[in-house]
Specification:
- By secondary structure, this protein is an alpha+beta fold.
- It folds into three domains: 220 residues, BirA Bifunctional Protein, domain 2 (2-Layer Sandwich), CATH 3.30.930; 97 residues, 3-Layer(aba) Sandwich (Rossmann fold); 70 residues, Translation Initiation Factor IF3, CATH 3.30.110.30.
- Helix content is 34%, strand content 27%.
- The strands form seven sheets. Strands 3-9-10-16-13-12-11-24-27-23-22 form an eleven-stranded mixed β-sheet, sandwiched between helices.
- The longest helix is centred in the C-terminal third of the chain and has 26 residues.
- It is globular and about 80 Å long.
- It binds one RNA strand through strand 13, strand 16, helix 10 and helix 11.
Length: 490
Amino acid sequence: MAKVLTTKEENYSQWYNDIVNKADMAENSSVRGCMVIKPYGYAIWENMQHILDGMFKKTGHSNAYFPLFIPKSFFSKEASHVDGFAKECAVVTHYRLKNSPDGKGVIVDETAKLEEELIVRPTSETIIWNTYKNWIQSYRDLPLLINQWANVVRWEMRTRLFLRTAEFLWQEGHTAHATKEEAIEETQKMINVYSDFAENFLGIPVIIGTKSDSERFAGAIDTYCIEALMQDGKALQAGTSHFLGQNFAKAFDVKFTSKEGQLEYVWATSWGVSTRLIGALIMAHSDNNGLVLPPKIAPIQVVIVPIYKTDEEQIRVVNKGKELKEQLEKIGLTVKLDDRDTHKPGWKFAEYELKGIPVRIAIGPRDIENKTIEIARRDTLEKISISSENISDYVLNLLDEIQKNIFNKAKLFREKSTHRIDSYDEFKVAIENGGFFEAHWDGTAETEAKIKEETKATIRCIPLNTSNEEGFCMVTGKPSKKRVIFARAY
RNA sequence: CGGGGUAUAGCGCAGUUGGCUAGCGUAUCUGCUUUGGGAGCAGAGGGUCGCAGGUUCGAGUCCUGCUACCCCGACCA
């Protein structure tokens, strides 16, 4: 087979770029830092949206839409929030263009300056809480459980397709609650939804935890996150859920009258996942033959490739393919029959491997003679010939097995790459090979900064579901209540 | 914003001390043969050589300025 991909071993970043490109998911646009998501990549995003949206609805949330532009003054209302985003905001200053005097194109009309500049949203807390002020008066208005699917802009210095782009797509949930307990419960509920989604649909094992002070979302009291490990040993934050306390309620003066008749500030949460998950999906599972998609997220689950020589064979084989497609669609699968005569079977095999389609079925004249089909699975690249009778159940089981296998493989990799470590000297050496490191930390920002400075590793999270094993900070020797996860991160 | 690099066909690249009609691979189109792992042969189309100046009989090649992109740092979901 002709080599079209850089291998992971040769150059991991190039391998990633090659997959995005060859699987036809996205490309760089002529706008600096902004990508074009191509149909196949967008179809993956649509599947993610569909599944997540169902999960949000099931947990009582409704969708709404808030403006792309946010008045500059809104941003200064919550101090730490400004600090967090000020350095990466796109700002709209004018609202009109005019013809250039030299006749060459258009220029900004300086007379059309905005009274107040507008910020292209890097996230929507401010505009949303400004709006919630009008929506919330009484405890009867709570909880308010809203989600929006939107694009946001963060003016990044260096960008990579899906992982970090100036504009990206995401969903952001923004909820308002009467009590602190209820808001914390919501924050945790949503990080669990994300974890469920990542593990059971994307097949990516994640660690749920909270962020340290320095990694926390600008304006949050607590940031919960799910952290995943990529195949190069680097960590990737796959989703976050924030307990915002009353910070935004106070900044935007959102109060409600409680059952007891008291005027109180509202408690808030926000949570989001982005198109970055597509990057996670690629880096968690794919191999040197291309993308590997878990069946539950794959835009096409089964592809059928007819093989023939003569016109007569073509008709017979394609008809058989159509029959098979209908049969599989009847049990709810998404199936593509590639009956294009413009490409050869070998070309198609390679193509669908690059695109990560979980199951490929080939039917040729020999199969029709023998009443068989050839079935190949993408995760293991195994190919077997089976009877064409009753294949629905076989395919259904196979997809299920592939889904599980992809997850298990990723989980095994993570287990192999997770190390308990107590010596900072050993840590400095071991971090070079990547992976998660469970280590004791004294809880101070200074120690965290020192580690980051010296090793480029950061605290990915303080995991929730682990035992509170006491110990001593690997750097300072001061007491520590539990181990935290260190890694180099995307 | 610092340091380095690149800019020639859709994509990837070559182009010598300045030289005549700017080339190769791949992709595209046509035809024939092919089709169970990215087919072969024959032919065809496709270029303001990043932009603007300059030197020269002559510039893809030399000089000056600009712009864009890539890599490495600081910053980040």
